[in-house]
Amino acid sequence: MVTRLALAVTAYCARRLFPADRDARDAGPFLAAFEQWDWGLYLKIARDGYFPGGAGPGTDGWDNREAFLPGFPTVLRAVHAVVPHWPAAGLLVSLAAGAVAVVALARLARSYLPDTGAAGPRRTVLFFLLSPCAVFLAAGYTEALFLALALPAWLAARRGAWPQAAVLTALSATVRVSGLFLAAALLAQFLLTARRPWRQAPWLLLCALPPAAYTAYLYLHTGDWMAWKHAQERGWYRDFHPPWEAWAHTWQAAFGEAYATGYALTSQAELLAMTGGLVLLGVLLWRRQWPESVYLAATLWALGTSFWYTSVPRSTLLWWPLWIGLAALSLRRPRFTTAWLCLTVPLSAALAYAFLTGRWAG
């Protein structure tokens, strides 16, 4: 709750001190600070559906909204029935989902760090909530809702509760495509279990149902079995490129002086996040944490094979091994916590300001 209050103060100050019109006498609605970037598309889907009035790919001004999965807009529409103000409904979804995610992350940390008592879970949650991209846990975005499903799913898998894990993973796949990566990790976890309960294996097939159903839905409206992928390509340049090309394009955007300084800085953040992800993957492989490696490797492959990197920093919120690993490191090296927080707290504030003023999409 303290982090949300801090973010509210940041949003208030951003609206008052840095309005779009520096001579403005009215800063506008407070919650308007959270109506940035992807929120507009989630709102349109929740309010109007995917293909309102027969519009769709090929029509003038089409916004490629089918690139966004239906889980979050569906929940948003349901909450809007109780909370009429759309931005407030979006923030409420993320607030409730974020609370669930934090509790699940703490329990997950306890299972990974059983000898640390309460210190391990607390430190994990601290690093997570003060991560550089923590603003997206509060905004009307998908990260909090995805984690509220994915983290309990992974906790259930570690406990051998396969039906529960499969159902939650399937639900997470309605929110973000990362749910498919979680499903792959879930399969790896099942196959590596010493005593595999084969009778429960069919439950894992549930994970494929939401993507299949959404693909069929898009085909019925567009006649294109690859409508989701093509929307990603049209709107966000997410057509396939070899990893080295994606790195080179992002490097050029970051350091080639061809773009404005703000855009160059966000590209530098993309490179830094991808490098951190590769280091984390190396650590997971070295520690033989195979299922977690599958999840992260699939994530990095998806993010690292577009024209250039997009939303890699925001994706770090979904890498629970990162936050648990940082907690474990901080317990071995007490000074690490101070150094990390001295770096990330001002960075979190700066990135929150950048998002709340429409300068950065994560």
From TrEMBL:
Membrane topology (UniProt)? Multi-pass membrane protein
Question: Has UniProt tagged this entry with the keyword Cytoplasm?
Answer: no
Task: Give this protein's Gene Ontology molecular function annotations.
Answer: alpha-1,6-mannosyltransferase activity; GPI mannosyltransferase activity
- Which key words tag this protein in UniProt? Endoplasmic reticulum, Glycosyltransferase, GPI-anchor biosynthesis, Membrane, Transferase, Transmembrane, Transmembrane helix
Chain ranges passing through the membrane: 86-106, 126-155, 167-191, 203-220, 269-286, 293-310, 338-356
One GO CC term, this protein: mannosyltransferase complex
**Protein's UniProt keywords contain Transferase:** yes
Location of the protein in the cell: Endoplasmic reticulum membrane
The protein's annotated pathway: Glycolipid biosynthesis; glycosylphosphatidylinositol-anchor biosynthesis
Name the Gene Ontology biological process terms: GPI anchor biosynthetic process
What is the top-level taxon of the source organism? Bacteria
PANTHER family for this protein: GPI MANNOSYLTRANSFERASE 2
Could you tell me what this protein is called?
Integral membrane protein
- Originating organism: Streptomyces solincola
